[in-house]
């Protein structure tokens, strides 16, 4: 994929891995397969994986059995790869289980859909427990706790530093969350997802809207394939602060690589300072 071209030098090389999987692939096998993919990918500053790519985005009947502690095998393997390659790695999300004796959440379930950002040293740099649970009373709302905290952090790389905001899948439908991330200084928002094919046009449209209205980069990494009877939508995309889609994948497993110009956030907000005119 071709990145954004221009005169600016503050660039971040990003890779979105649109993982495809079905019901016949074991969790541990998929983790090893994706680990090899990251190692063979080539140079990047930041690699992003989809939501619940290991545990299954719609495999809710197995979440209780496959849930892991934050230092469990999936995060540990991803941390090892991040350290080996020397890359920032957004490891998508896992079904996180509360540690013994820890707060199980307001509803006492002790399970969350938690995304994990790993440093090039292989440490857990930032986590985000998904706030908006999808399922309309089933799936996530029935089985998982809702997250309560927003997540914005600084990511230091060769070209400089970026303020990164974290969101997950269904969060995309709630513009107030993205506005809060923008208020907290996010200029790049990472959005892993397990978004199904029947609503893929919503995925594409809402990603552009969230980027345009907040004048921020939005990196959307979706899954592909079919699991638990649900066909996934693919179409991972990188959206500029102007709302322009600068790179996009199709419906199958693939990697999207692009250079994003971080100075574009500054110039777009200066040239069209719409956020300064907010009244509510």
List keywords for this structure.
alpha/beta, Nitrilase/N-carbamoyl-D-aminoacid amidohydrolase, six-stranded mixed sheet, 28% strand, globular, disordered N terminus
Instruction: Note the overall shape.
Output: globular
Largest sheet: 6 strands, mixed
Could you say which structural class the secondary elements and strand pairing correspond to? alpha/beta
CATH homologous superfamily caption: Carbon-nitrogen hydrolase
Number of helix segments? 7
Topology readout:
Elements (H helix, E strand, L loop, with lengths): L10 E8 L8 H14 L5 E3 L14 H4 L6 H13 L2 E10 L13 E8 L5 E6 L10 H4 L8 E6 L2 E7 L8 H9 L4 E5 L7 H15 L2 E5 L4 E2 L2 E2 L5 E3 L5 E4 L5 E8 L1 H9 L9
Parallel strand pairs: 1-2, 2-3, 7-8, 8-9
Antiparallel strand pairs: 1-14, 3-4, 4-5, 6-7, 9-12, 10-11, 12-13
Helix pairs in contact: 1-3
């Amino acid at each position: 994929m071709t990145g954004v071209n221009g005169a600016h030098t503050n660039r971040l090389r990003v890779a979105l891995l649109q993982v495809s999987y079905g019901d016949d692939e074991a969790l541990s096998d998929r983790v090893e397969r994706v680990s090899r993919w990251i190692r063979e990918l080539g140079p990047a500053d930041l690699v992003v994986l989809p939501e619940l790519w290991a545990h299954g985005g719609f495999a809710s009947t197995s979440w209780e059995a496959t849930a892991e502690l934050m230092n469990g095998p999936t995060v540990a393997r991803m941390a090892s790869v991040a350290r080996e390659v020397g890359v920032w790695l957004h490891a998508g999300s896992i079904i996180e289980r509360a540690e013994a004796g820890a707060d199980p959440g307001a509803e006492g379930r002790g399970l969350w859909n938690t995304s994990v950002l790993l440093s090039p040293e292989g440490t857990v740099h930032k986590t985000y427990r998904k706030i908006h649970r999808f399922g309309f009373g089933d799936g996530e709302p029935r089985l998982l706790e809702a997250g309560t905290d927003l997540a914005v952090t600084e990511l230091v790389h060769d070209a400089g530093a970026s303020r990164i905001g974290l969101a997950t899948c269904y969060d995309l439908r709630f513009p107030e969350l993205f506005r809060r991330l923008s208020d907290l200084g996010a200029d790049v928002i990472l959005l892993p997802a397990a978004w199904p094919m029947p609503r893929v046009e919503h995925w594409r449209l809402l990603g552009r809207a969230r980027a345009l209205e907040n004048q921020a980069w939005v990196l959307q990494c979706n899954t592909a394939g079919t699991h638990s009877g649900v066909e996934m939508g693919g179409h991972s995309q990188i959206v500029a602060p102007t709302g322009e889609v600068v790179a996009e994948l199709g419906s199958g497993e693939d990697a999207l690589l692009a250079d994003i110009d971080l100075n574009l956030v500054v110039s777009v907000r200066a040239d069209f300072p719409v956020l300064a005119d907010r009244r509510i």
